[in-house]
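---------- Forwarded message ----------

FYI, see the NCS1 nucleoside transporter record below. Original note from H. follows.
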Amino acid sequence: MIGIVIWVSCLKSETKEMSQNATSNKAFEIESNSIDYVDASQRNGHVKDLFTLWFCTNIAPLAVITGAMSVQTFHLNIMSALTAIILGHFFGASILALTSAQGPQVGIPQMIQSRAQFGRYGALLVVIFTTFIYLGFFTSNIILSGKTLHTVIPAIPVPTATVICAITATLIGIIGYHFIHKFNKIGTWFMGGALLIGFALMIPHVTADVLAKGSFNLKGWFAMFCVCAIWQISFSPYTSDYSRYLPKEIGIFKPFIYTYLGAALGTVVAFCFGMLAVSLFTINDAMEAVKTATGGFGVVLMILFLCNIIGHNAMNLYGASLSFITAIQTFAGKWIPTKSTRIILSIFVLILATSTALWASSSFISYFLNFIFALLFILVPWVVINLMDFYYINKMQYDIASIFDEHGGQYGKYNMKTLVTYFVGIVVQIPFLTNSFFTGRWANVIQDVDISWIVGMIVTAVVYFVFNQSKVTARDYTVSTKKC
């Protein structure tokens, strides 16, 4: 836990040095908001913090391991793997950044915003699914962090280490928004600096023979591109949660560009780190390859990765509690959740996930992650609907009072056009799916490459456009009439 102590000490030091800043003063205060609207008087965040949040969050062991797939699974050489990773992440990050840019305009978390698109009760579909994802990743990460802590300090048994890491992540999540941002702001310097050192140790070993390993093949290249794009898109349900405290006047571009660059660059660095390590050494375990490639510095990397897992898991805990509150508040229209509600539900998530983690088998992480990634096709139509509705249909304007209205206000209890679009977007993907549990009839249009998400995005966009074109036409006519 030495790394965590140093990390938090730096947090305290920075907070003290910047004591004149209102946001810094709030870093160690328990956040008072839950899913409620963030008033203009509380909008004092820094847009640059979106870069450090998404940069640091994505430098994690799972990203390193996934990056190694470009060589281990798809047999690409270093240069073709590099282009697939860069282009895939920069494409996917554009979608992630567009959802993040919504936060300052609406001032509410991402999932409750779905009521404006699906209706008050209709939004429960995506809220429940997202809650399940949060819980699964939180459980998987506390298992991973417990094993990592045990590796760093063998004297701590794995069960004890698991509980320690789970409680630490929960405490960060309970303190909330400002502390999560500050944690990742400090972490960016630690993780970014550590990977630079790691690259400096590995690059001298890149010889002509290493560069000659693998080859360019379109199937493998496109498969890796898809993996990277889906990686970014899968973070979309998180985004407004961490941008909603920014002033509305900041607009769209700045939140977009800082999120975009942070998410894309952080993940590209982590993916390439794993890709380079397994290119240098023929070792199946990517993290073992990293330790071998970086020598004695590998121990430092493991400690920092542990801190990063805990910080990332705090975001899973935070998101899970907000999604739980959103689901409960759907049936209690006049209830205004407080920070106490968020704390209680965070503790509930801690107990539930830790109990599962201690009970789970050694193969739980692998099985569950395969299951979650297999279900991501359910997320794709939501992303398309979310972006089209916010940017095209409603021109970045939502009625917040209707979102919290117990009868759904102008958005109603169900939006049947949106629900039909959502289910169509799911169904059209099924024949193209290829994962650990299911292979569709047309899954091998490109051998071993899952293109279902591309089909889902295109069809969902077309159907949603057709269903809502009359609404857009009527709005444009009203606006032009008023101008006349």
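H. also flagged this: The chain is about 70% helix and 0% strand.
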